[in-house]
Amino acid sequence: DEICEALSKYSSKIAEYKQQMVECDQTCEELRGEIARLDNYDTDLRPDARCALTRRPVAHADEAFYVFPSGYVALAGPLAKEVVPYLTAPQRERVRRLEADLAAARRARGR
């Protein structure tokens, strides 16, 4: 009886893991579709668009900005300050390296 019970529990666990894998596969497919859709996403930026975080105008800002499908616009610096605290240590280090690379590229271009 103990062996049958153990096998039954083991079988139940396998079924649970299998269901989780199916759900993960579905989520991945949905994300792939969303990414593909966003690859072809175009939007118009209003001339008076303002950063959702600082309310500063973005059209003539001397800083990169992001336009999201929701219509929100955010300057790169304020967005990074908002997001970086939620990243893992390796992700924060990657952001730091990318920012340093971008700064070096700007200096090299004379900006």
Question: Which helices and strands appear, and what pairs or packs with what?
Answer:
Blueprint lengths: L1 H38 L25 E3 L5 E3 H8 L5 H21 L2
Antiparallel strand pairs: 1-2
Tell me what the structure shows.
With 111 residues, this protein is mainly alpha-helical. The protein has three helices and two strands, in the order H-E-E-H-H. The chain has a two-stranded antiparallel ribbon with strand order 1-2. It is elongated and about 75 Å long. Helices cover 60% and strands 5% of the residues.
Strand order of the largest sheet: 1-2
Strand count, sense and closure of the main sheet? 2 strands, antiparallel
Secondary structure tally: strands: 2
Name the structural class.
Answer: mainly alpha
Along the chain, the helix and strand elements come as HEEHH
Mean pLDDT, to the nearest integer, reads 91
Helix content: 55-70%
Distance between the termini: 76 Å
Uncertain runs with pLDDT below 50, 5 residues or more?
none
* Amount of beta strand: 5-15%
Number of helices: 3
Rg (C-alpha, Å): 23 Å
Shape: elongated
Question: Keywords for this structure?
Answer:
single chain; 111 residues; mainly alpha; two-stranded antiparallel ribbon; 5% strand
Provide a short characterization of the protein structure.
By secondary structure, the protein is mainly α. The protein has helices spanning about 1-40, 75-85, 90-110, and strands at about 65, 75.
